[in-house]
Amino acid sequence: MDDEFTFNSAGQIHELEMALAKSGDWTNSDMTCVIQKPELLSGFLKVVREQAQIVVVKHVVTCARRLFLRRLDSGWDEEKYWNCGTMGLEKRADGQLYVSGRKVERYLHPDQKDSGVIYSHKLREELADHPVLCTCVLDYLLRHTELIPEDWRSDYTFFWGTIFRDPNDRLYVACLYWNGRRWNWHCNWLGDSWYYNYSAACLARLPSGR
User: Fold this and answer.
1) Each residue of 161-177: pLDDT tens digit?
2) Is 68 exposed, middle or buried (0-12, 13-18, 19+ CB in 10 A)?
3) For a surface tag, which of 10, 144, 152, 189 has the fewest beta carbons within 10 Å of its beta carbon?
4) For residue 5, is it within any domain?
């Protein structure tokens, strides 16, 4: 292709550096991210060619350990914590929640379907390779309930990315639920059974299965 891009001079590289300096507070970490994720440049190219638009994310969550613990009694701690990094949250026109561009799905194990039940530790093993969300997202949703999909009112949505340990060494997972008047949270003991309406908040899998 005759118009295929290549850097053909040091001056062109300098012009790009100047444009980046004017466009915002770019850092070396930002540039490393762009280099490691070429899909970002592919998306920007679509914007340049007026094939897409940039939407500014208004809701940003930065995961931090022990964030949810302030809601729990003294003596509780985190047994397991999956750091999801920094994520953008949005509720799209379809009424569903998206995290970093991926739809949040509420997973049910086959044993839970059709009014079924599953032992909690079996479900925990099953979820080990699922992209489950941590309680940083739950904490944010409790403060921004306008982001919660309406159809979540029918179930308890658990955030398996964080597992808590109470002062008696029992393990718990926190969930989001509608109590009939407002959104609330609860911690369920991992010694309990998980019923048909106890779903797990997971990111939709990418085509590669991740």
Assistant:
1) 999 999 999 999 999 99
2) buried
3) 10
4) no
Residue 4 counted as domain residue: no
CB 136 within 8 A of CB 67: yes
Give the residue-averaged pLDDT of 6-18: 74
* Amino acid present at 166: D
Residue 119 has what DSSP assignment?
A: E
**Residue of higher predicted confidence among 143 and 86:** 143
Calculated CA dihedral for residues 201, 124, 130, 179, nearest 10 degrees? 0
Same domain, 94 and 155: yes
Q: Which two tokens stand for residue 54?
A: 């940039």
Percent pLDDT > 70 in the chain is 90
Provide the residue count of the chain.
210
For residue 198, the number of C-alpha atoms closer than 13 Å in the C-beta half-sphere is 23
Same-domain check for residues 32 and 82: no
Residues 6+ apart with CB under 8 A from 117: 111, 193, 194, 195, 196
List Cβ neighbours of 114 (8 Å cut-off, separation of 6 or more): 196
Nearest 5°: the CA angle 87, 53, 34 is 50
Please state the domain count of the chain. Answer: 2
pTM over 0.85: no
Q: What domain range includes position 40?
A: 10-48
